[in-house]
Amino acid sequence: MFFIFLIYLSFISLGLPDSILGSAWPLMNTDLGVPIWNAGIASIIISIGTIVSSLFSYRLIRVLGTGKIVIISISMTAIALLGFAFSPSFIWLIVCAIPLGLGAGAVDAALNRFVATHYEAKHMNWLHAFWGVGALLGPVILSVLVVWGNSWRSGYFTISLLQFALVLLLLFSLSKWKEYENADSKRIQYTKETNSENKMGLLNSFKKKGSAFGMVSFFFIASTEACIMLWGSSYLVKIENVPAESAAGWISLYFLGMTAGRMLSGFLSIRIKNEALIQLGCTLAASGLVIMLLPFPTIFTLLSFVIIGTGLAPIYPSMLHQTPVYFGVVHSQAAMGIQMAFAYTGATLVAPLLGQLLANISFLIFPYFLLVCVAGIMFCRLILIRANEISVKPKRLSQ
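and the corresponding structure tokens:
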């Protein structure tokens, strides 16, 4: 029980730094004396770090083990956040962004593969719901400290201390990680002996039927989520004429739907297979986007963000939990790293590109673009399911 509790805390710690940069930047750029668009530079550096560490996480885990990688990665993020808190200049901030990205990508890939291999689907959904809790807590911690008369630096400093505290707790769990890894080693060795074609490596992950489509589906889902987070408020202002000062509050309905949806998905996954949950989520998200497109009063558009968030909620964690099913235990860590890299690439590139389209064409294309992304997810999943002959029927209930 204590071990799974630590993993839940680790997912909260993953979410804490993800949202604080955007929340703190209006204060940071003034204090550091840099243009407001410099936030994009820091964000890209962090994203590049996460992509690189995701791709090579499987090699590091093979050498050091999951437990040590998690501890080292969270230590890197804690040190990086401490560096943010004491940054004398923007250049120093950029230097600290490198270990922040590298640490975040490695721990994300390591934890997701570990949970996908050793725990039921309900835990994957709940854990990603707790990531949402962390993402919500980051700005809350920052705003409370600022209201109390502190600077943005105190927010980074506090979150850094929380990360260091988690590292201390994780140090006591190293023996437990090793127990799981010893069992993994025996299982992988047996698989290798019975199938000589099972060789570890990044490229070998693509040898499974439909694997490329599975990777691309992560690109689409991350792109969809990033576009809503970045441009959802602007859509409400431009198209629905919602006041700018309240649009940000209304978009929180999306995050509410996402967090609540993942908690609910955890319970549904006990009765419903992952593929059925993904299918249901895509259908619900597409329905919400159709409601957004129709000429209904603004209240329906606001409601659509809840529906879209609830629909998207089970897709990402359920897809991650299927990794050992699609690629096998031998390839699962390498495949997980590639999937995370595809997701980070989509989140980094697509939302800014969509911004250019919205600025040069019209915000009216926003829901159409998202529908294309959701259709892309559904198409990729269909190819993957057929290639692996996976059933999407509900689980049989025990009598």
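(Above: one complete record from the training split.) Confidence is low (pLDDT under 50) at residues 190-198.
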